[in-house]
Amino acid sequence: MTSRRVGAEDLPGTLSRGPRRGASASVVLRAVLDHGPIARSAIARRTGLSAAAVTGHTVELIRLGLLRELPEEPGPKGPGRPHVPVDLDTGRHVVCGVHLAVHHATVALLDLRGNVLVQHEEPHAGLGAEELLARTTEILDDLLLEHAPDRTPLGLGVATGGWVDRASGTVVEHAMLGWRDVPVRALLTSGTGFAVEIDGHARALVRAERLLGRRRSRESVVQLFTGNVVDAAFATGDTVHHGPRSAAGAVAHLPVDGSTEPCRCGRAGCLEAAVSEQTLARRGAEMGLLADESFPQLLALAANGDPIARKLFFDRARLVGQAAALLIDVLNPEILVLVDRSVAQLPDCLPIIREEVRTRSLACGDVEETVVGTSFPGTELATAGGVVMLDALFEDPLGPLLARVS
């Protein structure tokens, strides 16, 4: 990475807090995230910042508890400063994360590297929006007391499906939850006292992939989320695309071949209606595989070799592959990341999706390199919530978030 060299004008005390200083502090913090433990001189070489600017920013980031110095590295004797590496301080703070799914909420605590320290899944059938968010607050209090009593919470990130307006902190519409214009940020800020950020879960997982996962995703990436809700997100360069009122990524009603499943929109053959976990669980129950419409039970049957359950998932994988091929041809990303429980637990699903992409896509080159599973199998929901806040922190570590905590 190259950029202009930054000199004394960027040092603490010589430039008021603002976008330039916050941006260069962000560059330092991200370099440590990517390469730490790392010496200050190596940060300067990798980022193009001056040695003085790097020193100034590391001093302040250490004071804020985001970085820590490690013991001096052995090196050649002679003049000059010793090489004292710095790394993220993962023991002082904690980031809270919440993912709101159709049937359950996932509440989690993460460290500054995005490692999930603890996650709790809470069913919420029958709860309205305010009741669910109040219950989430109670669970979060319990997790903090039990698992992070000596850490300072930096804030709360929230991710969910549907139409989420990040700027206002509102779930504009989530049909499966029955929510419309729910002020999630305001309700959770009032309930917890924390800074709260909210975003759609596909966009959140794009940010997670770029911040914590595959470096190739920083060029361009499409995230396709197929759960009970089906949606997508796209990022290129430094920008995650939101669109007006954050409505980008609505792929639920893309038409797919070979499906006559009725959709709530009144048509048949829409992507979400065809491949959602609810649809598959219902089919499993109708075929006598399940006593209840339980997607986890159906997935377990398929993982244990039940041929009928496996066929349901393989047919579904072909439909997911159709959507993936279309997104690749329209957006031509460096990679397309699939977030789907069956991809993680049924090894044969990903090859089927890739083969569908290979057959249908005109733009995809090396399909094995392009179509991949998530970097966070098993913790994707917890990561989605937490990274909404982590991304805000790494974007501006000297900004209002840390000022509020201080």
Number of strand segments: 15
Contiguous runs where pLDDT drops below 50 for at least 5 residues: 1-17
What general outline do the C-alpha atoms trace?
globular
Q: Sheet with the most strands?
A: 5 strands, mixed
Helical run tally: 15
Q: Report the C-alpha radius of gyration, rounded.
A: 23 Å
Following the backbone from N to C, one meets helices and strands in this order, namely: HHHEEEEEHEEEEHEHEEEHHHHEHHHEHH
- Measured by DSSP, the beta-strand proportion falls in 15-25%
Mean pLDDT: 90
**Gap between N and C termini:** 32 Å
Helix content: 40-55%
Structural class given helices, strands, pairing? alpha/beta
Biggest sheet: strand arrangement: 5-4-3-6-10
Describe the structure.
- This protein is of the alpha/beta class and 406 residues long.
- Helices cover 42% and strands 19% of the residues.
- The strands form four sheets. The protein has a five-stranded mixed β-sheet with strand order 5-4-3-6-10. The protein has a five-stranded mixed β-sheet with strand order 13-12-11-14-15, with helices on both faces.
- α2 crosses α3 (51-63) and α9 crosses α10.
